[in-house]
Amino acid sequence: MTDYQEISKGDILIVDDIPENLELLFQILTEQNYEVRRVLSGHQALKITEIDPPDLMLLDIKMPEIDGYEVCRQLKSHKNTQHIPVIFLSALNETFDKVKAFQVGGVDYITKPFNIPEVLARVENQLQLIKTKKRLEEKNQKLLSINQQLELQKQELEIVNKELEAFNHRVCHDIRNELAIIQGFSQVLLENGYHNKTEKSQEALTYIISAGKLIEQIIKDLSRLTYINSQQLDFQIVDLSSIAHNIINTLEKSTLHRVIDWKIRENLSVYGDPNLFYIALDNLLSNAYKYTATSDNVEIEFGSLDNINGADNQQIFYIKDNGVGFDMEKVEKIFAPFVRLHSNSDFEGTGIGLATVQKIIHLHGGKIWCEGEVNRGATFYFQLPNKELMDNG
Length: 393
Ligand SMILES: Nc1ncnc2c1ncn2[C@@H]1O[C@H](COP(=O)(O)OP(=O)(O)OP(=O)(O)O)[C@@H](O)[C@H]1O
Ligand SMILES: [Mg+2]
Description:
five-stranded parallel β-sheet; elongated; single chain
């Protein structure tokens, strides 16, 4: 609030074609610390209100050219001026149509000759009403924004709830299935004599081991996602390019025979949590690595598109491969936990990787999306808010 606003109790425009009336009201009101402007005609009043609307208008009815009723009617028909309360001024000896005064939008009237306490009481009353209205509007605004926040929280809770449901299903259903396999084949082993290396017992052992591995993987994935949910973000500049190189080294060691043309753009960095970005890139690059395993002349690229939309100056990062790709018609749920577009017999996995990546990007206030084509590869994009926005937000 400016000093002026603190001192002035309100900005009032008086409109009267008789200078003495103007002068008198001006005196009364300025003495009470109101900011007062005066004009002698309806035309001037309309012009002034358009440029700089007052808080309140005292408007004479009987004026040449354009009378008070008409001035009021015009004020009320314009968006910028319709909120200004109008108190009509009328002389006792004039014919004053009160019904018409209220019909055209007046809120009160004062009769001449002026009774000073009455003038002040009526003016103060209107200005108080304006203040109360403003306070209510502000409260309303606050409630609206609280409501919006609650709505956002509700949406987040719904997402978390869906994840929990998926976990529940995963834990109860899938782990139980794998345990049944372990139990069943252990029984086979027991019945066949596990020291006899028959084909049947060999097969049973393979099933037991792979079921055990899957359970281990599920538990690992679940704990990774829980870890992300419980993390306090440790914001700093993160060198994504060097993280990518580390991940690639580890991937290349895992299968020696693969030849991949890696195209890593250097010096790509973001402002975020380094551990979480390691996990995100690990998932995206591991996917690119995994879903190119059956392709020839494999190229995997990590790069960025600069200022694609100009205005917000945000970089878009992408990981692109030329592997098996996927059908865009099925892309809708690709980021949901445990959703897989390829079968386990073609490519192993639990379907939690992209849900994890999405969670990390969302935690940083960013967005992620992808495109793909069957047998022509896939590209995953992510975009993050500017560092300044994160600092302020
Ligand atoms: N680069 C890619 N190319 C083709 N399909 C992909 C690619 N990345 C992901 N997908 C598809 O999206 C699905 C979900 O990916 P996500 O990483 O979540 O799970 P996953 O790789 O199957 O298992 P994991 O949890 O072990 O990562 C995959 O099953 C696959 O069908
Ligand atoms: Mg994956």
